[in-house]
Amino acid sequence: MKPIRSFDELTKYLQSRESHNSIAVVCPYDEHTKYAILRSLNEGVSHFVLLGNQNLMPPELLKKELCKHITILHYENDKEAAQKGVQLVKKRKVDILMKGLINTDDLLRIILNKEDGLLPQGKVLSHLAVMDIPTYPKLLFFSDAAVIPRPNLLQRIKIIEYATTVCHQFGIEKPKVSLIHFTEKVSPKFPISMDYVNIVEQADEGAFGDVIIDGPLDVKTSCEYESGEIKGISTPINGQADVLIFPNIESGNTFYKSVSLFANAKMAGVLQGTCCPVVLPSRSDTGLSKYYSIAMACLIADKNKTIA
Amino acid sequence: MKPIRSFDELTKYLQSRESHNSIAVVCPYDEHTKYAILRSLNEGVSHFVLLGNQNLMPPELLKKELCKHITILHYENDKEAAQKGVQLVKKRKVDILMKGLINTDDLLRIILNKEDGLLPQGKVLSHLAVMDIPTYPKLLFFSDAAVIPRPNLLQRIKIIEYATTVCHQFGIEKPKVSLIHFTEKVSPKFPISMDYVNIVEQADEGAFGDVIIDGPLDVKTSCEYESGEIKGISTPINGQADVLIFPNIESGNTFYKSVSLFANAKMAGVLQGTCCPVVLPSRSDTGLSKYYSIAMACLIADKNKTIA
User: Fold this and answer.
1) Mutate: best of B182, B227, B229, B267, partner A, most A CBs <10 A
2) Which of A147, A294, A298, B147 could form a Cys-Cys staple with A21, CB 3.0–4.6 A?
3) Residues of B with CB below 8 A from A185's CB?
């Protein structure tokens, strides 16, 4: 498989498949979610089950000519709609779950329910995002900008494993994973830099499979060759990172918000650790970003099926 | 004074003055520092005293025709050169100190020396940076991306005061200061969000003078009106922040590195708290960025003189 290097290539890849994915959307009441659903239908990448109050859904989604591609399940109550969405995943009636205009905490509580939720025991819930940045030659994955505020060493290892797996699914044979810090210096004053050394050693011994991991590195040294050269830093990342692992949620979120705003980057993101990809957009995400998140989830769902 | 909204306007403002600033540069051995010095001379914004080993300085800086604007003081030893630079500031022979190719820690140790250094007792040393971003309509100041890893409440208040003062010096009458967090929610789980509430209350009572302070806000809501609108957040920042105060050094540094790299932003920065502006560039800063830092320091030095 040729590596997918942009969101356009992602759509083309999905269109080249013979099958479609099926996506359950909980409470698709807002314009951005509507855009994402209609765009996905137009591009031919997925079918939908829409759960929630029919009277609150945009009329364009209820049109008769769409009934081949959209199934509507009417629920007056948001939480019931969410519960049904989770059930559809458990019964393998859909491949992907997506949040519309429902309170995030309400939906998460149902997803995380120990008895009939979507997070298998022992799994770490995390968030993986990817950006298509006009000034960078390939997709740039990053984590965790949304779920775990201060990952501990074990959580961080899981986060790296999730990112590596998805990179492989995107056709990146040996992803370059950069462990982000504000400096390249390792110091006991910053325990995270010691964790990074530990992780890099494990990676060198093969614990993470087919991947190159290095750090601590800053964002510029990770993504620009000259930056490392000027500083006299030699790293196998070589300014060509595929993945940035951020030290904390503040830095991950700052990256996501500032690069999407100031560099006109396009964004996609899914939850990781759950038994199916879950699209959980933030309120300020655009319709386009919600569509790209669906596309990302479709690729992951397909590749997981192939393994299963 | 009309607000300065770009680095070009900053240069023009400095050119409109009748006087020049005088800058001591310690160990100006590298090409980027050379570029910044020659550019400053060309633009007519400052004169220089260069301290260090003459044999290591680029020959272009030693040309006879520059002797009206450049004084060379030869020192074989880097630390002696640094010490002399600090002395020149103390004796008011120069207005600004700048680091060339000398180890940052060595220079900082001399600057921070309690007896004859540049940090008055009780002052907090911090770093203030400013970006000229092609996709943002005005200059965007931010702090602290370089010096204090985890500012406590008192340090954060100082950081805000420094930024506000410099904004006023740039002609921004009522700067909008945004306290950055990864979400707009206030929660005891994140003590910093409680500190922010405290600071906003103090600001409302006038403790910070002529300034609008709000937070917690994320970077997008701070700098894009639509983002706040979609989230239903009403803030006097209105997507038009002049200043971003970051929660920790990792997020500040991520902002600085990713926006300069991916959004082609130009950067300037100076130390704050010292008795004169100190330009302490990072090794990977471009020559242009070092020139803009000189320009920023010149403006600050001038305005401080007016007050003194």
Assistant:
1) B182
2) A298
3) none
Asked if residues A26 and A51 have their Cβ atoms less than 8 Å apart, the reply is yes
Closest residue to B218, CB basis, from A182, A219, A253: A253
Mean pLDDT score of chain B: 95
ipTM: 0.94
A135 interfaces chain B, CB cutoff of 8 Å: yes
- Which chain A residues have a beta carbon less than 8 Å from that of B246? 250, 254
Residue B308's pLDDT band, with cuts at 50, 70 and 90, is low
Assess whether the previous peptide bond of A120 is cis (omega < 30° from 0): no
Tokens of B256: 């600085």
Mean pLDDT of A45-65: 96
CA B92 to chain centre: 21
Output phi, psi for B36, to 5 deg: -65, -40
- Greatest Cα pair distance, chain B, in angstroms, is 64
- Residue A135 is nearest to which of B230, B257, B262, comparing CB atoms? B262
- Token readout for A180 is 């982000």
pLDDT digits (tens, 9 = 90+) for B114-163: 999 999 998 999 999 999 999 999 999 999 999 999 999 999 999 999 99
Q: Are A26 and A50 in contact (CB under 8 A)?
A: no
Query: What is the set of domains in chain A, with CATH numbers?
Result: 1-122+274-308 (3.40.50.10950), 124-269 (3.40.718.10)
Asked if the model's pLDDT at residue B307 lies above 70, the reply is no
Classify A171 in phi/psi space as left (phi over 0), alpha (psi -120 to 50) or beta. left
What is the model's pLDDT at position A231? Answer: 84
Rounded to an integer, the average pLDDT of A105-123 is 93
Chain A, nearest residue to B284 by Cα: A227
Contact call for residues B26 and B98 (beta carbons, < 8 A): yes
pLDDT at B284: 75
> Is the predicted pLDDT of residue A88 greater than 80, yes or no?
yes
For residue A19, the model assigns a pLDDT of 86
Q: B71 to chain A nearest CA, in Å?
A: 28
Q: Parallel, antiparallel, or unpaired: how do β-strands B96-99 and B21-26 relate?
A: parallel
Q: Rounded CA gap, B103 and B114, in Å?
A: 20
- Pairing verdict, β B140-143 and B126-132: antiparallel
